[in-house]
Amino acid sequence: MMAGMTETPHPLYDRHADTLHRALTAITERGYWSAYPESPSPWVYGETAAADGKAAFEAYLGGDFPLDQPGAADRVATETSPFGVALDVRYPHPGADEVVAAASAALPAWRDAGPQTRVGVCLEILARLHRHIFELANAVQFTSGQAFVMAFQAGGAHALDRALEAIAYAYAEMTRHPGTAGWEKAAGKGDPLRMTKTFHVVPRGVALVIGCNTFPTWNSYPGLFASLVTGNPVVVKPHPRAVLPLAITVRYAREVLAEAGFDPDLVLLAPEAPGEKLASTLALHPAVKIVDFTGSTGYGDWLEANARQATVYTEKAGLNTVVIDSTDDFAGMCRNLGFTLTLYSGQMCTTSQNILIPAAGIDTDQGHKSFDEVAAGIAAAVGKLTADPARAVELTGAIVNDGVLERLDEVTKVGEAVLESRTVTHPALPDAVVRTPTIVKLAATDTEVYGREWFGPISFVIATDSTAHGLEILRSTVGECGALTAAVYSTDEAVLDAAEAAAIDAGVHLSANLTGGVFVNQSAAFSDFHGSGANPAANAALTDGAYVANRFRIIQSRRPA
Amino acid sequence: MMAGMTETPHPLYDRHADTLHRALTAITERGYWSAYPESPSPWVYGETAAADGKAAFEAYLGGDFPLDQPGAADRVATETSPFGVALDVRYPHPGADEVVAAASAALPAWRDAGPQTRVGVCLEILARLHRHIFELANAVQFTSGQAFVMAFQAGGAHALDRALEAIAYAYAEMTRHPGTAGWEKAAGKGDPLRMTKTFHVVPRGVALVIGCNTFPTWNSYPGLFASLVTGNPVVVKPHPRAVLPLAITVRYAREVLAEAGFDPDLVLLAPEAPGEKLASTLALHPAVKIVDFTGSTGYGDWLEANARQATVYTEKAGLNTVVIDSTDDFAGMCRNLGFTLTLYSGQMCTTSQNILIPAAGIDTDQGHKSFDEVAAGIAAAVGKLTADPARAVELTGAIVNDGVLERLDEVTKVGEAVLESRTVTHPALPDAVVRTPTIVKLAATDTEVYGREWFGPISFVIATDSTAHGLEILRSTVGECGALTAAVYSTDEAVLDAAEAAAIDAGVHLSANLTGGVFVNQSAAFSDFHGSGANPAANAALTDGAYVANRFRIIQSRRPA
């Protein structure tokens, strides 16, 4: 047995073993579980937590971000807040070779520490981040444009849950084989053949995580922690407009790594200057063997085609689709869909875009509703949620970037608005860019319009010949362009089954008859899969065995016993 | 719940559940286990089994192979036996679109049958193949050039073990999540949120298996059965010189599928005519989503670069390396290495090629041995095994194709032969092409020679400055060119540890101090991993979680409970 290769778990493993084992149970049951409370209430987090977190966030503004890592001598500041708040945080700005060299040097000791020690350290990083959850939430809010509660939940608690989920899957995968095994085979009349075999978990190399603007933590944490816990040093390349949440993440990760006796360069921040194309340089670096990316289809496709030395995980654009056939709760359906369209101004990769309704209308608990009545019902629900500016902005947040505003303008030319987008003045933050959702009416033949993603508070009500026609459109558009979510409303079991069959064919997750407090754009860690890897919107799911299994290899050695 | 999607396992699942569960235990323990006896003895298989199998094999020769599948109207015959036996079997010759269309049409019912039913059917296919193991062994022998016992073991029993191993991994992966789960989340003062979630295992699409000349079954079965059991129809494209073993496989697979009530087009044979490039056409077909390939580095690299619509698993060439530092059993070491070099005339992807020995010689139980004495010891062991033609051919088998003969000629020009290759006349099969191994002496600076694969009975003894130098060569050449096996001989624990560290860095499996009945070129299913996916010789291991996890996706549907 090699010195240092037999695992004596780090004390941090013992500290977090219960959490790990609860998470391991959760991923096999896939019922409800969460490790990190999603309520920002002082009853949960303490009286001063919110103010302390806000103060910590504000202390970063206008200064050099405290990170002792390569590139600290050079600085870059690229963020603009959708809420109109000056950020001006200056981050270390390492070169690609510099950051990859530092990461590579940190690899061997981390690899040799073994799965249990790595899990212990990673769970301690999550605990440390959880302790700073309000600081993280403020950073997510002011870079992404999410309203505070959403930033706290999606950007804090749920992101940590998804990280823990990824760690649990990776631990299960790394330990499905024993570290050593005896092998004994009968050999005729002689002594049996006896061997001792050792199975080493070996990382692939340096991992790169390319963050997005809208969900800098939630979309980055699964890949970051799946790669790190399997032994790969991670270079985090944030979106230029959402650096701070990942800088905070890297800061506390490095703090824990150093405390645990490891090289903090196992996690490095690599922000890019405008026009620098650092993401591409890093993605093509020969030492980079894993890339996780969330963002545009164009760049995701480029990564898949060009970063051939790496295993590439992408989440890209899609056409999230709703098929409405009938409902026994028309008000609940409209309220539910209205909330989905309003939340974060529809700037979620899971927000429904294409709502397919039979032109002849639908049967409901309120009697037959015409196509226009269904559209008006959804529009009214959005209208109600956004009528009061103070309440509206706590749901919509702010518009993440100018691209969304341009699409809001462009969409006015493609069809009749059932609901027009309005500008809302944020009561507390007058420079915040706030828009309410628009809903535009289209014909089923308008595939040139609804056949591409209109990211932002833009959705379409599309008149179909029938529910079957709607399912056919779901099947063809999602099959071709992908989707992260699909939904169906029907009181007819046969229609629900047909929708499920269409979803299976198109490779998209389906939600049926959501009328209450569960929304199609939300997925719960440990239970719901996010993305499927079975349609063009994403080449992997968060989080399953396939998401973690290729992040490491087993290297075996055998000796006569 | 969708009609037909809830699994009521097929009776074949019950029939084979014990085998499945024993295999599931084996893959978590990775000790010794085998499901299919490797001895062709009549005591195991019955008095008439060998003769019946030979007769069944001979009945195929010179005729139309009995396969009722697309392409049966056209026929192709491309095989030439290394043993000089006329084969002339004519196989159905479908076009790419034809075979992919047939496979695609068979997919939905197989997908919807669920994991347990698919496992039951696949294990019945293995049982059926096992019943015809002598027929398979003859087909493997006379197409690959393996001697009979090896063809029976590697091409029959061990191939079936590897198939079962892949099925067990796939089953574990498909069922790590439940088929359905309840989800209940507290919601303040109101009723909890309750959802019912269904998780469907969904295949990727049509799978393509591209077989090789030397191990038509052993190298094809893991991919074939991993893809099939996860719901993907499989198109089997055999090597033009080794069609029969896979034709027999497809025949019995189709027989079982039809008996079990499934479309036999779930498994199809697609042999190619000379120059047709059917493998490439199939590999680029948009409906083909998985490709398994064993063969040359050039073609494997081409597949990885071009079959972008598919997940591609490749096993390619490499530089299998031995580092000799010292031994306490010089005779055993020479005997063990001599056997490895002789078996199947070194035509295994796992046969050692580069044997690195300090120029100053090594310490042994027989005192110090000079470099030349070590080389002579290995050469003598080969000589002893090959001295008697009748015994020799039962180890060496025959030379698989002219490329090997050309390399045997070429290698005479690159260095001094410690052992020259000899032509052996097969006592029973006078047209068999039989050659004994050659061993050529090189300097460590001859990287242009030993830095590429010389597939066949060709190995090099290479003089190094020291053991450390040898390990450095292992690290660099295997890191750059890949390897499927590595071995070390040393009495010094520090050297064994250093070799293990080098193997981990290079990403290659290591065998230490093999002097008895375990050989570096042999890997045992359920215990040894074959290939690692961590060096250029293969992008995946046979068989682990990563090998199966990407062959299917989970599609979820959720409804309020």
From TrEMBL, chains A, B:
Record GO cellular component, one term: cytoplasmic side of plasma membrane
Aldehyde dehydrogenase domain span: 96-508
InterPro entries given in the database record: Ald_DH/histidinol_DH (IPR016161), Ald_DH_C (IPR016163), Ald_DH_N (IPR016162), Aldehyde_DH_dom (IPR015590), PaaN_2 (IPR011975), Proline_metab_enzyme (IPR050485)
Pfam families: Aldedh (PF00171)
Keywords, in A-Z order: NAD, Oxidoreductase
GO MF, one annotated term: L-glutamate gamma-semialdehyde dehydrogenase activity
Source taxon at top rank: Bacteria
A GO BP entry: L-proline catabolic process to L-glutamate
Database matches in NCBIfam families: PaaN_2 (TIGR02288)
Name the UniProt record assigns to this protein: Phenylacetic acid degradation protein PaaN
